[in-house]
Structure formats: structure tokens, C-alpha cells
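hey so u asked for the seq, here:
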Amino acid sequence: MSFVPEAVCRFAGNEKGAVTVEWVVLAGAVTGLGLAMSAVINEGFLSLSGTVDSELRGKKYATAGTTYTDGFDHGAGGWDNGRVSDIPGIGNVLGPLPRTGGAESTSRTFFTDPDAADVSFEFDMLGMDELEADDSSTIYINGAAVGSISVSGGHATFTASEGNAERNISVRTQNIDSGVNLGGGSAPDARTAVQVTIGNDGSGQVSIGFGSDTSTGADNESFAVDNFSALGIDDGLNNSSTETGAGA
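ran it, C-alpha cells below
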């Protein structure tokens, strides 16, 4: 004799509504998975959006003014809080950049040519030694971040800052060296070519700066700048180690 009420038995054997219950569970699981994945790929989307924006905007070099170039063979003159180091196999570089949690630490102000439509900065960002994914160097224009480069295992990733388009700024990057040994250490390094183009706002000057957010000191991991140049500056108001006229 069964002590289970007949109504309970009918309910347990009835499959009506089972599909609805299973669908709710599956839909919830898929939604949760999608949210988890968005957090993982968010950084990549930001980097890609910055690159697409730069390509579509199609910024060109300044066509007026002076071109300033600096390989830092004569020190860090003109750079606030700048230092130059001689790295074996590379030569003189601006760096290692001070460890500041990513805040701007090293900067320089240039006077712009009033006839230049844009001002462009070009340089190589070197990421060396035991860098991990959360170690990065941030690039600043007029005191505000325009993007950051993180290096892990000798591979660099650029992430553009929001609001660059509104500020008439575009940033283009290209990984030149990945997973190679640049400075003589045992860990793989990375070299990224960077071009930052700023629309001339008529203020007469523009500053570029750098910050570093490494987890340990420069003796273990660091960022540095090499092969720096500025285009569209006023040749009468800027000191440089090498200057050439526009188009030279």
C-alpha cells in the first residue's frame, strides 16, 4: 500500500512545463557566460576600436613647421623628470620611465607652428624584462591619457583611451619586435612603434608625457622611449638635437 498521495504521483509523472523550466535554466546559463566573456574581451575591443578610429580618420603628417628628432644621445634636455640610459644592444633611450602607478611622470612641451594643421609625435615604446599583463605604460597629451601599452611575455597590446576623437587625437601603433631579447636580459621584450597625431587647436603649444605602472622596480622590468620625433612644431621656439624643415 502506497502512502504517497495520488496527486503527488500525478504531479511527479507529468512532464508538462518541463521544457519551460529547462529553457529558463539554459537561458540563464548562456546569459551568465556572455557576461563573463565580455569582461575578458573588453580590453581587446577597446584596442580595436581605437585602431579602427585612427584608420578611418586617416590622419596625415603635418605639412608645415619643423621636424624634431632625438635619439637621446645628448641626454634628456627639455624633458621634465627625464633620464637617459644606455641599454646594451639598443643604445641611449629615455628611461627607464619612473614607476608611478601609471601617472604622468616624464613630459615635454613643444611650441606648435601656426600653419601646421596637425602636430605628430612618433616614437618607439620599449617594454623590457619581466613584464606581465597588468604592467603598462601610459601616453599623455596635454596631461590627459590617450592610451596605454601593456606587455606580457614579450607581446605588446595597445588600448586607446575614450574621448580621443572628441579631442581631435588619433593614435596608431605597430608591433615591431615581439618576444625578442632587446636589452640583454633573459626575459622576452617588445618594441612598439607609436604615432600620436593632434589637431592644431591654435593654442601655440602641446605637451607629450609618459607614465609607467610596473609591479616591480626598473632593475626587474621597465618601459623606455626611443627614436623620438615631433612634426609640425615651431622651429624658432624649440630646442632640439636635430631639426629639419618640413618635407625634408
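DSSP finds two helices and 13 strands in the chain. The first strand starts at residue 66 and ends at 70.
lmk if thats what u needed
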